[in-house]
Amino acid sequence: MSKKILILPGDGIGPEIVAEAVRVLNCLRTDFGLDIDLDEALVGGAAYDAAGHPLPDATLELAKEADAILLGAVGGPKWEPLDISVRPEKGLLGLRSGLGLFANLRPAILYPQLADASTLKPEVVSGLNLMIVRELTGGIYFGRPRGVRELENGEKEGYNTLIYRESEIDRILRVAFDIAQKRGRRVCSVDKANVLECTELWREVAIRVGEDYPGTELSHMYVDNAAMQLVKAPKQFDVMVTTNMFGDILSDAAAMLTGSIGMLPSASLDENGKGMYEPIHGSAPDIAGQGVANPLATILSLAMMLRYSLDEPALADRIEKAVDRVLDQGLRTPDIHAEGAREVGTAEMGEAVVAALRECD
Ligand code: IPM
Ligand code: MG
Which of 240, 262, 284 is the last residue of a domain? Predict the structure, then answer.
């Protein structure tokens, strides 16, 4: 039976980069026998403009029916004045919680061809290959109570709640350990257990889960130290696992180690391996519509989709090899441009990946 894939281009550069990923998907369909059905829907600011809400019911329904979802990016200055409840970001958060996508995998890999793009010294980052596993449907992002209230003296007070149940911590730790078992067998759990009770519990559960994985080393790090270690000696890490907000922050830092946020994919998975796949970067409104955005993070997100949701690891490998090949050929979008490279636009990069896909074996 063919697999259903929902395409959510979103805002800013989203439609441009997603179009190149769809080009790759179509090539896999025609040349490599991938049996898929594509559907498309609105999310984010584009959905707000068309339907008055960043996550229309119709989009959530289609997302629920799909086997996997490919998302471009959401947001932009145009929608910043809107009330927080209908901002484009709410569309993304609604998809994550509505679909139970609790496990966010954010690999940070340095491509040797791009070693010079990092702001860190090459010896600090060369060979970097770390995986951040971020909890995505709990913690302070979703905790209640939340809001802004007025005190008796008329002063306003804003508040959010950091909250995790044992079961939520347990399941994300297991995802991290399962991944570590297929990599370097080291998990670093990041918390703030010296200050926050909630993450004291996180550490307790991490230790308990770790006992089920005797072949894998578990270490713990406070989040402030983890931020420092990430820029000081990032290669010490194999898999990092952490809360929703700490993961949000640390994964941006990790992305920049590779010098090019335009290269990094991500996967957000539910209990059954259904997932939403998206580049880590945002909607980049400053370059939207110019045809210069880097489509590689979105194309690499497709590779993750093939591996984690569609059970097509050979095709996933093929996409990754094709990306490697176009970098070897010296093709660069402006964000990763370097001396001596050939600067190309979004579509030319997508076409080059398709050509490389057909050549790779
Ligand atoms: C991310 C983004 C989102 C987040 C925003 C757009 C809501 O920063 O995916 O990391 O904070 O999770
Ligand atoms: Mg973020």
Answer: 262
